[in-house]
Amino acid sequence: MNEVIKLINNHRSLRKFSEEKLSQEEIENLVGAAQSASTSSYVQAYSIIGVTDEEKKKQLREISTQSYVEHNGHLFVFVVDFYRNNELAKKFDQSISYDKTENLIVGVVDASLAAQNMAIAAESMGLGMCYIGSLRNDVNKVKEILDLPEATFPLFGMVVGHPTTKGSQKERLPFKEIYHENTYQRMEQVESIIEEYDQSVSEYYKERTNGQRDDKWSEQVVKTLMKKQRLDVDSFLKSQGFLGQ
Amino acid sequence: MNEVIKLINNHRSLRKFSEEKLSQEEIENLVGAAQSASTSSYVQAYSIIGVTDEEKKKQLREISTQSYVEHNGHLFVFVVDFYRNNELAKKFDQSISYDKTENLIVGVVDASLAAQNMAIAAESMGLGMCYIGSLRNDVNKVKEILDLPEATFPLFGMVVGHPTTKGSQKERLPFKEIYHENTYQRMEQVESIIEEYDQSVSEYYKERTNGQRDDKWSEQVVKTLMKKQRLDVDSFLKSQGFLGQ
């Protein structure tokens, strides 16, 4: 296993950083790495907004409810972006389609590939990072704070900074569960693998909390996914010109 | 700039590979790297299907229209996957929600972050890779070929193999165009940057084709996005239980 794969496998989400800011060179290196990712048909359907304004960071923290969003680290917001392409089309007296779920998916994939490149670049520089999906708790407000135009969608944030903690890793599903060969394997084929995994995750929590917590992965994700949340994302997307009929 | 960032920045999509197959160890390293990416609330809402069956590869090539999908490289298909979580919920006599665009986005982001980790891992091993978004040309057929259950969506493929060509890179949008500070910058603020970029892309094509081709980035993406394509993705997603009302 080479050094790059070791770095990738050593990923952990960090939420505490020192006060030391990123330099302009670091920011440009991170954004450059993000941009080097593949992009569907060269459309580059995303933008990255760096938020340094203290008042804006405070407002975004209130949306995400995560205090570290406000207090330290450089905050990048990844935005699905068809506004740029749409404005260019107007110059040619044309109009483009971005109103199908297919188009939205192209933008979400483009932005995500770019973000993951940035995540690895950050960790390779000795920096720590964490995704902030919880910016989607109030996408209308994020639009207002960042003055986003139509045909854009704030997908997630990422904080990047100089770490002050080591963080920990959560074990992933076993290879045999995530990787299928030629045909999708149904639940009855993998049930025992998930049971073993549940045991292993449960032991991790017990150890980390001195026996206070021992929930299994299955229980935890079912609880998470039972919650109906961010129900305004659909109507927001429609108001931005996505998901038309 | 460190070695990892140089590797990331040196990315190029490769479509020709030797006949040499990936070893089981290589496949496990690639999937392990993919799984190390962040996952929204630990849900791990994706699966990866490795396609080695020649008949299935042929059928998938017919969908994507890209001959290299059939002929060489290891073909991974990244699938947005709430089936696993949904089956687990049934065991607890519960049901989960995955019928909002928000849920679909969680799965698309999870799968994309994992895939980009795999892409970098592959390149770090001296392998080449290329995304295959064109599997979405016929998602119903992909479902049939891979026997996908409800609550899943085939997002894209990725071929990985031993390269026989060097490939080339397409210049990305300038830093000042993709990166905004605190507030989204409208078209009138960046028009001249895009014009310069268009010139630069145009020169690249001229050089590569001995003057035969000189189209600008703007024209190219507008043409791409004017096409209405993959119009059945919406109805497929609905039939799989996504995008409910």
Structure description:
The structure is a homodimer of 245-residue chains. The first copy, chain A, is α+β, with helices and mostly antiparallel strands and 245 residues long. The first copy, chain A, folds into two domains: 3-166 and 228-239, NADH Oxidase; 175-214, no CATH class. Helices cover 48% and strands 13% of the residues of chain A. Chain A contains eleven helices and five strands. Chain A has a four-stranded antiparallel sheet with strand order 1-2-4-3, with helices on both faces. In chain A, helix 2 (24-35) crosses helix 6 (101-124). The termini of chain A are far apart. The model of chain A has no long low-confidence stretch (mean pLDDT 94). At the A-B interface, helix 1, helix 2, strand 1, helix 5 and helix 6 of A face helix 1, helix 2, strand 1, helix 5 and helix 6 of B. Chains A, B: Reduces FMN, organic nitro compounds and disulfide DTNB. Involved in maintenance of the cellular redox state and the disulfide stress response. Chains A, B: It comes from Jeotgalicoccus meleagridis. Chains A, B: Its cofactor is FMN. Chains A, B: Residues 9-162 form the Nitroreductase domain. Chains A, B: This is NADPH-dependent oxidoreductase.
List the helices and strands and how they pair.
The structure is a homodimer of 245-residue chains.
Chain A: H1 3-9, H2 24-35, E1 46-51, H3 54-64, H4 68-71, E2 74-81, H5 83-91, H6 101-124, E3 128-132, H7 139-146, E4 152-161, H8 175-178, E5 179-181, H9 187-208, H10 217-226, H11 233-239
Antiparallel strand pairs in A: 1-2, 2-4, 3-4
